[in-house]
Every structure is written in C-alpha cells, then in structure tokens.
Write the structure tokens for this entry.
Amino acid sequence: MKYNKFFCTLIAIASVSCTTSNADDNPNPRPGKDQGEEKPVTSDITSIYDLNQNKGYLNSHAATWQNSVLEMDYSSIVTLEQPKITPAYPMYPRIKKLANGSYLLIYQQNLSAHDVYYAKSMNLTSWTEGGSPLFEKTDMNQYESSVKDRVLFSSADAIVLSNGDILAFASFRLNKGYKLNNLNNGIMMRRSSDNGASWSEPQIIYRGTTWEPSALQLASGEIHVYFTSADPNLGDSGTALLRSTDNGKSWTSVGKIIRQRAGTAMDGSGQTIFTDQMPVAIQLNGKDRIAVALESRFGRTGTSADQYNLSMAYSSDNWASGGLTGDADGPADRKSSIFTNEAAPYLRQFRSGETMLSCNADKTFCIRMGNALADKFGTPMPSFEKGCWGSLEIIDDHTVVGVFPTSWSETSNGEQISRSRINIAKFVLNHRINAAVLTPETDGSSKDWKDVDDALFIGISEPEGRAGKTGTTFRFAYDNDNVYGMIERKDASLTSSDECTVMLQSGNGTGTPVSLKFSFKDGKIVCSDANVKVASCILGTLDDTTEDDGLTIEFSIPKSFLGIVSDKLLFNAVVKDDISGEDTFFGLTANNYQKWIPIELKPAAEPAPVPDPGQGEFNSDGPKWSEGDEVNPWN
C-alpha cells in the first residue's frame, strides 16, 4: 500500500470490447465505438459504494475480526486549505454525518486555537468555502458580567443525536490568567435542529479547566460528554464526565472517572499527579458496556521528553460508582499503555463488530482494527502523514471517513509561517464475505451479478500528476460444480501492462494456493491457468491518452481444483498498474494465509453472542497477530 497526497478523479467515456478466452474463442462484443457506432457507451463498472448494502447480523464478523482490514479509496481523497477554508492553519478536524445525509466538518484555528469553524458538504468532496465560525472570539461579559477578556476556543467535537439534533462542544478559556481561576474556563455547547443551517446561542455546560470534549449517546438516550479535566499549574489531568438525561437541555457533573498516577507535580511540591486524557467513548454493540480510548501522558525524566501512550478503560454499569475521590485512581477495568509513543486516539465500531482505534504515531495517522470488545487490536495501518489530532466517522456499514491535518512551514516576506491542510478520505471495510448461489454466464458482463452484494475492494495510489484512480472490486458466486468470480477495475488509464492476480487458498490455510494471473495478450485478457474459463470487457482503449473507464473480468474455476474446507476458501489478490506498481489488501502477504480474507460458500448465519470479558475467547478462528510478518506491505 502506498500513500499519495495528490489526487484527481476523471469520469471517462470509452469504447467497449468484450472477449472470452481459454474456453471460448468467439468474442462477444457489446455496442460501442469499436463497432462504428457514434453513441458512446457508459461504464458498466459497479462502484464499491453500491455494493455491501445488506445490513447483515449485528456483530456478524466479531469472531473473524483479525481477517478484517481497511482499504483507502484514493479516489476519495480531498484536501482543504486556505482560501477554501479559514484559517491558514486548520487543526483538530472532526467530521459528522448528519441526519439528512450531509456532512459537517469542524476544525480549529492553530494548535493552541483561538476560534472554531465549520464547513458543510453533501458528498464529502465539495465543501462550503470560507469556513463559518461556530465558536468565535467574544467578550466574556456576555456570559459573566464581572469579567471582560478575550475568550479562546479549542478542541471542538460534535454528536448527532438519535432525533437528528447536532450538539457541538468546545473548550473555552480566557486569554489572560486562565491558570489562576478555573471558573473562567469550561465547556460551551451549541445546538442545531436543522442539520447545521442555524445554531443556538452558546451555552456554558461546565466550568473548569478542560480540553478535548467528546460525546456519546447511549442506547437508552442518555448523553455523555467525556473531557480532559486538568490543572495546568501542576501538570495534572484525568477524564471527567457530564451526563444529560433530557437530550442535552441540562447537565450533571459526575467528576473524574478515569485516571492513573503519572508522577509528581511540576511545581516541586511532590504532589501526586494523574493522567488519562483526550477521551473518546463508544457503547459496544449489543451491550451496556462502554469502552473509552485515552491518551496517557507521562512526564519528562532527565532530558527525555513527555511520553504519550494509548490506554483503554471500560464500564459495564454506566459509571454507577460516580467520580473518583482523594488520591484514588481507576477504574480497575482498564488496559494501561497498550501502545507506547502514540497519542490522540479516536474510537469507533462497525455494526459487524470490528472496532477501530486511530491515533497519531510519529506524526502519521494510523488506524488499528480491533475486536468487538475493544480490548484487542491488530497492526496499525498508516495513511495520512505529518500532522496530529485526526478522527474517524462511520458513514455506512462498510465505510469510514478519516480526517487528519497535514502541517508544514513556509516563508512569506521573510517570516516563517505555519500552514496546514485538512485531508479527508474514505476507507472501505474488507472482511469475510459470503459467495452467492449463482450460475452466471461467463461473458465478462456484470449483468448476472446485480443481486450479488458482498464485495471486497483494493485501491491503488497514483503518482503526482496522474489523472485518475484505480479501484478494483471482487465478488464471488458458486454452484455445484464451479466457483465464479467477477472483478471490476475502474481505471482511467488502461495499459497492456495492467494485471490482476487472484489467489485462492484452502479453507484451513494448508497446501499450495491456486494463483490466477489475469493479464493482457494481444489486447485481450487471458488467464495463466488454461483450466479457467475467463471473459472480459475492456471499457476503453489500451496504451493511449484516451480517458478510459476500466475493465471487467469474469471467470469460473472447477471446485475440484480448489481446496474447499468447511465450505470456505481464503482469498488474496494483487492488482498491478504500470505506473503505480502493485497493491494488495493491507497486512496480507503471499504466504500469511491465516490472514487472508475468508470466502464462505454458504449463506450467512447469525453469530453466537459476544461473551463478556473473561468469559472465553471469541476469536479462535482468526489469525494470531503476534506471529508477525516478514514482509511489510508499506515498504
């Protein structure tokens, strides 16, 4: 997998040529320019976003989460910077999908922040320009008549409630002397009941020195705001909680609920200080249990800088014991410093069970897949680079949006200026799929596959200046005799060097996999195995500058050639582009078979319930990530 920060998407109109090979030498072309017809043919390639639409069972993939991976859709990458948005140094971005299907982007000005802005989009691509203020400079006397000072806002986040209302939260502080009086700092909230078209006046819901509020609505309707509660004079922090049982009209402070000892105070008093900050919480699928991802900060020792680690904390009783008192730390139900030298977590969970934990690691935005209990996580997937404070938003059952700022410095009129841009991209969830019962006509057309929903996706990054993006989807079907595959490759620049290799391994990961290379020969797609029937449709022309749509490849292979075990195969693929090189699913290599993606030749079945912690393993069918891989797919 390769990362590229530049992007361009072109929609092509191309000629179409369909052929079969290895079992049928008679071409089966469809109407197009190649047959002398003037009317252009539109693409028959199915978008990955039109697939995987069946809702499926809750926690359907909890038992095989270690075979689940994310794939960036490089054609979806959008970058926003001045003058499209304000200011020149946007940071701390958060995206929310709204009740009407549109999107809200919230971000702050600069690292320390003065104001908070927002932008809106209907499609994650085109955003309102300029940036509108959401929490902006004002006089504190609007809220407290005895104090006049510049109010600064930072680390805003929002939640879309079950009734469609948006609640946005930001930490505020006075520009002068904020360390001296906690009552001059706190959390403000604004509400929108019309998908961000208008906003209520700001409301102070908490007073005290705070950063990084984030919200959660429980299945019961209760709303939580988790936030960093800190004393900057001492270097002390911890995670505190606000509750609302009336849809955010009023709030109750619970106090600090999560913290661990981190050392002694910076003032030399020897006072114990705590950490656990920047919290993001989820309620786990089908459970009362709450999982909270945290950043844990440990102080300098000698000449070493602060160290930031990621921790997790949990509650199965909605924090019924209330806030921590005295020098107590807690809760006992936690996993401390599970990942070191990482910071700024964000936590989400798919309906299918997999959790996702994102973070900053060496100024790179990384995402880990986790299990349904959010207490085990796999190998980090790097994506955007050179920034901090990213976030995730699930927009459907197979798609998550990642947002992350990239920062740099430039010289203007002899002055060094900090700049940044906001990067946005979709990531597609690839996990175990169920092949359809189907006997398609192997003619290269996707017409027989219109009801086959389960699909997998590989995207390829492309060099700067390259027009177009490559994305390939894979679907499977079976009958009594054969397994069938439909490969659809979107590619604006088809060349005769383009290839795709499909690998199918036995369901128990033993033996030698069947490897099928599909490549061009004399302008037609052929398969490396003569026993495989293959047909293709080329939606474009090869090796020229004409904009293409891509191609489809349909194949059938006898079941007797495959090591089908327990109605299951394991799948991997490599897509080759003559300019971009090769790409595969993240974390999969040629021989780590246990991590390949399962294809089940049977209908999906409702899974067993996910056990509570300590009641038994629920991932025995998955690979053991501790084994590691010799090949790093990111090199």
In short: The two ends are 8 Å apart (CA to CA). Residues 1-14, 23-43, 619-635 have pLDDT under 50 and may be disordered.
